[in-house]
Design goal:
16 helices, single chain, globular, Rossmann fold, Dihydrodipicolinate Reductase, domain 2, 36% helix, 9-stranded mixed sheet, alpha/beta
């Protein structure tokens, strides 16, 4: 987060270079995000966007891709009168990631475009590439002299998740990136951290005196973090076989949500201060190893069923998935943050594919009131208050409280006090990539993962992966597509006298 107020000045002129610009991420997210930043007047007075990929495109064809992407995926449509002014900032250079001459040509084009537009060498390199190509691209940028910023300018690099697939590979990638770019110029992006509700977590906690005094083990019974996806793996079976739910969602998205939920109050909103406090949470995560993995981690695969608008044939029957696969499409974890604030409070994490709906939330379950007065009858127990932050699709929050039903008898019922960003504020909330790209341009790293946090996350996750490897499991439990997961996950949380929230 850049601070309590609005940004005070327009960022310096720069060029955004997208490596892998022919992919879906560029068309669906990056180009629409840049367009909306332009419409909001948040981009520098002079800027350029340079696409780079193997695909046979030229400037005009790349601009057509941008037009189609904005028409299909932007939160706001293109304005005919101003579109020509926007697209004149878009350029394309064809080349392969492993071809040094292509990067020499990329540098030549950048020098030419920047000279025309008065851009003094500020560059943001967005690596919209597979993890296996990160090291190659970074090394090619260095060899071509693109990673060297002239005096007074900057060269920044954005790395998409996942950074590696375990602790060892993450360290190897980080070592290569660090050999070329200073850590302050490396932005490891996680689009979840650009969502409005996630950004507002610190404001909710530290700007409302009714919450922060209760945000600890004295008053909170447990926390649930859910990231549910309605779709199966679709055409991404090959990728998912290499990733799985733990690597794909828990190591980055969910652990970052946990950090924002559990961190101590930072003494300022400086990027390093905020990231130090998030790192403090990762340092306190109780390791899960050996038999602890079996007790506190549930994994499963979706089987045949119906999810969304159609029938689902089951994960092991999907294209490019091994019939004997043991890759998890669902994982539930009971985690603990072993520090003074959270001692003994379980954090229940769950994520999965082919679930009943697309929904992500952080739910704070407060402890119940004593068993007296209105809570004296155990058969009519009053539920504890719940504060639920909805991350997607309807960003907002709900506070569930107990109240009396109208009538002569003291019948207690839960009711929801609801807040929705879309209906409470005029205008649409910016998309996550809009906020994150702007933060890179202005140099604010608050919402990006630092190297030590990436490796600490992988260290914790690798303990679970090692436990699974040691178990030698040859099959996983199945849950019906369109259900909320396997019965084993229900048993895990019910063994502690708790239940998963209904979303």
């Amino acid at each position: 987060m850049s601070g309590a107020g609005e940004r005070s000045a327009s960022p310096a002129p720069c060029t955004i270079v997208i490596l892998g610009a022919a992919g879906d991420l560029t068309r669906r997210k990056l180009l629409p995000a840049i367009y909306n930043l332009e419409r909001d007047g948040l981009l520098p007075s002079s800027y350029a966007v340079m696409g780079f990929a193997r695909r046979e495109l030229d400037d005009e064809a790349f601009r057509a891709v941008a037009r189609e992407g904005v028409a299909s995926y932007s939160r706001r449509p293109a304005i005919e009168a101003t579109w020509p002014e926007f697209e004149r900032n878009l350029f394309y250079t064809r080349g392969s990631f492993d071809d040094p001459e292509a990067f020499v040509e990329l540098k030549r084009r950048l020098d030419e475009v920047e000279a025309e537009r008065g851009i003094a060498g500020n560059r943001v390199f967005y690596l919209s590439v597979p993890p296996s190509a990160i090291e190659t691209c970074v090394e090619q940028l260095q060899v071509a002299g693109l990673a060297e910023a002239p005096g007074g300018s900057y060269a920044r690099v954005i790395v998409e998740k996942p950074v590696g697939r375990d602790l060892e590979s993450a360290r190897e990638i980080n070592d290569v990136v660090a050999s070329v770019f200073d850590e302050e110029d490396v932005f490891r992006i996680d689009h979840y951290l650009g969502k409005e509700t996630v950004q507002s977590m610190l404001v909710l906690r530290f700007s409302n005196s009714i919450f922060e005094p209760l945000w600890n083990q004295k008053y909170i019974d447990h926390v649930q973090i859910t990231v549910a996806e309605e779709e199966g793996v679709g055409t991404r079976g090959g990728y998912y076989e290499e990733a799985g739910a733990l690597r794909d969602m828990v190591q980055n998205h969910i652990l970052q949500l946990l950090c924002l939920t559990a961190m101590e109050p930072p003494w300022s909103l400086d990027a390093e201060v905020v990231r130090d406090h998030k790192m403090g949470v990762l340092n306190c995560l109780r390791p899960l190893r050996g038999t602890e993995v079996d007790r506190h981690v549930i994994r499963a695969q979706y089987g045949p069923g119906r999810s969304g608008e159609g029938d689902v044939r089951g994960y092991r029957r999907e294209d490019r998935v091994l019939p004997e696969s043991t890759t998890e499409t669902y994982v539930a974890i009971q985690a603990y943050v072993d520090n003074w604030r959270w001692s003994g409070v379980p954090f229940y994490i769950r994520t999965g594919k082919a679930l009943p709906k697309r929904a992500s939330e952080i739910a704070i379950q407060f402890k119940g009131v004593p068993p007296v007065l209105f809570n004296a009858n155990p058969e009519m127990a009053v539920a504890g208050n719940v504060l639920a932050l909805r991350i997607q699709p309807d960003e907002g929050l709900t506070l569930q409280i107990a109240t009396k039903q109208p009538g002569p008898n003291a019948i207690i019922s839960p009711v929801d006090m609801d807040f929705n960003y879309g209906t409470s504020f005029a205008g649409q909330s910016p998309e996550a990539y809009e906020r994150l790209l702007l933060d890179v341009v202005v140099g604010d790293a608050s919402l990006f993962m630092r190297r030590d946090a990436v490796e600490a996350s992988w260290q914790w996750v690798t303990g679970i992966l090692d436990g699974w490897q040691a178990s030698g499991a040859r099959w996983l439990p199945e849950y019906a597509a369109g259900s909320w997961g396997p019965v084993e996950a229900e048993r895990m949380i019910e063994a502690e006298g708790r239940r998963w929230r209904a979303l």
